[in-house]
Amino acid sequence: MGILEVKGVNKRFGGLQALGDVNLSVAENTVHAIIGPNGAGKSTLLNCLVGKLIPDTGSVMFNGQSVLGRKPFEINQMGISRVFQTPEIFGDLTVLENVMIPCFAKRDGAFRMHAIEGVQNERQIMEKALAMLDDLNMADKRNMHSASLSRGDKRRLEMAMCLVQEPQLLLLDEPTAGMARADTNNTIDLLKEIKEKRDITMCIIEHDMHVVFSLADRITVLAQGTPLVEDSPENIKGNPKVREAYLGETA
Ligand SMILES: Nc1ncnc2c1ncn2[C@@H]1O[C@H](COP(=O)(O)OP(=O)(O)OP(=O)(O)O)[C@@H](O)[C@H]1O
Ligand SMILES: [Mg+2]
């Protein structure tokens, strides 16, 4: 039984079957990559995992609890954080302020503190945010406006914003999209470091096979909304079905 269990998920957009009978089991403390050509349904699946989209049929269980229909702060409190395809940071705020924000959530019309272990007041939030920046080697940039960060550092900041919530599951939608090779390699190193230092499960959507094979313990290949194969990176590499699924992209 995985920490995340997706069973029989179907999702249609009008006449288009974006997801067709998706089953996925993500084992605790592993990195599970989801790959597939453009339009395969990867982001749709991720949106179903964070309650943003409700499947037409099927279930998504995290630690035995359904995520479907939950509000974003409830998803966070369950222990799930998500890194978006384009870093979602507040450009006008400093790096430190950005990391403090996820510790609050709008609930019942007011901003309240998230229940994060050992954090009861604003001072402790600031200390926690600073410790997180230190952990990700960004403490020296804490007073910079985040809009002026490099793309790689914006990604690092977004990671800090996720990790400050101490998630059990980190979902990443193309974390290296549009990055230069150097920033991609930095992101790979950062994710490796996060994996080594913490008890964390990661589910990563990625087009860059160098990233996938550097990080993944397990890979699911989606094609036209349906899992084509799930296997170890070694077996995926030599699988002719996988090459077939990517032909549309390379043709
Ligand atoms: N809100 C929506 N309304 C209608 N169609 C949608 C919607 N979201 C996604 N789709 C369609 O569903 C299919 C799957 O889209 P999705 O974004 O999940 O693919 P993807 O695998 O993430 O692709 P990419 O690699 O380009 O990011 C596509 O055909 C897309 O056009
Ligand atoms: Mg996508």
UniProtKB/TrEMBL annotation:
Gene3D superfamilies tied to this protein: P-loop containing nucleotide triphosphate hydrolases
Pfam families tied to this protein: ABC_tran (PF00005)
GO CC term, one of those recorded: plasma membrane
One GO molecular-function entry: ATP hydrolysis activity
Domain ABC transporter: 4-249
Record bears the keyword NAD: no
InterPro entries attached to this UniProt entry: AAA+_ATPase, ABC_AA/LPS_Transport, ABC_transporter-like_ATP-bd, P-loop_NTPase
This protein's UniProt keywords: ATP-binding, Nucleotide-binding, Transport
Signal peptide, first to last residue: none
Protein name: Amino acid/amide ABC transporter ATP-binding protein 1, HAAT family
